[in-house]
Amino acid sequence: MSSPSQADDGDRIGDLRHKLRQFAAERDWDQFHTPKNLAIALSVEAGELLEHFQWLTPEQAAHLSADQLRPLRLEMADVLLYLVRLADQLDVDLVQAALDKLDINAKKYPVGLAKGNAKKYTEL
Amino acid sequence: MSSPSQADDGDRIGDLRHKLRQFAAERDWDQFHTPKNLAIALSVEAGELLEHFQWLTPEQAAHLSADQLRPLRLEMADVLLYLVRLADQLDVDLVQAALDKLDINAKKYPVGLAKGNAKKYTEL
Amino acid sequence: MSSPSQADDGDRIGDLRHKLRQFAAERDWDQFHTPKNLAIALSVEAGELLEHFQWLTPEQAAHLSADQLRPLRLEMADVLLYLVRLADQLDVDLVQAALDKLDINAKKYPVGLAKGNAKKYTEL
Amino acid sequence: MSSPSQADDGDRIGDLRHKLRQFAAERDWDQFHTPKNLAIALSVEAGELLEHFQWLTPEQAAHLSADQLRPLRLEMADVLLYLVRLADQLDVDLVQAALDKLDINAKKYPVGLAKGNAKKYTEL
User: Fold this and answer.
1) In a mutagenesis test of the D interface, which of A44, A56, A60, A75 is the best target, namely the one with the most D β-carbons within 10 Å?
2) Which of A61, A85, B40, B113 has the most crowded Cβ, counting Cβ within 10 A?
3) CATH code for B11-111?
4) pTM given for the model
């Protein structure tokens, strides 16, 4: 269990970023962790996560057992780890980017138009 | 769905999770945000992020201009938004999962064996 | 790169391969069409194809209108084009590889064990 | 080694399509092979193919050993198998779609504008 450091002001993502930096530095992996390679790794991990769902019906996917959830949880972890690592390499504040994108989405998908339908904003 | 715990205080990911819940509820989008659909959306967004790198040399990808970085930052945001939403639907603490996975990786890739090489742990 | 064999006569994939070679050569695109970049492009296109399905119910996805099918068909085309191009760069006979893989799958998934279930062969 | 049947007029993809139909029918797998699930499986396999390249330099990826190529060839096979199966379910002639898309691309990327650069057609 990690405790947030002072430096991170309670930011658990910041904590993760520092641990990942150290992990890579100890293994001399910065040479592999280029932005392009990290974007590939992120996409590969997202595919591995998706693989768990590929033959499930929506109903089965909505009622996963603890045994089914365990590996899924670790695939989600992998996606986050590579995303945080990529954000670090590109000097992006991930959570701030997500908040900004949520604002953009709120304008693209106004409640009145988007309610109850899944159309892309270009088709609303 | 998980209810916010005390531990979420000051947690920016927890904050994002709550905003996303509200965003979906206002638009009646919970019907679309099934775990299976969210896993698909996550993978699709990871692909859109990767698209920005597809024809770049490693050198070009390591020296992105502000104009190149802007859309990339928002694609990274999309990945995080869907990941947080999926974690919420599956009641997974994303950052804790990542910390657990990092511990697992530290055992799979001991510094002595992994230093300076990118082989999979099964081949070390 | 492979040179066309006698066996390609009347092979529509072989025809496609030659057209793609010419297309790239005319545009001086061989410099971009490295195996790594083509594998990225293939994955990106597979994501674009998948995007069309992301919010559809299984029922909706099984009854696509002509308007829905038209863009899907072209995304499938993109996947094939990059796959054929990658196979050409790696000197792989794509259809023969698929036939070989089908033989492997027949052994991994014997009818008696696999009938009516979607478990991975490692769990049969 | 498969020999093209009369019915397929020498079309090796058509031959593959028929073998896949039979494979699924024998295992009662049509229930899983919905268009949505097949599009997921295709994307997952494209990710598995990409995984082989993720930490390679462009130079390493351009000079694969026979040992490296063997699993790659089977991943490419998996992509083709799911693509052919999806095309069959959607009643799409895959090779014709690819030829049509190549014509579209030739107009989007005229030799004079596209020569030697990898910009998207919207930026040419």
Assistant:
1) A44
2) B40
3) 1.10.287.1080
4) 0.92
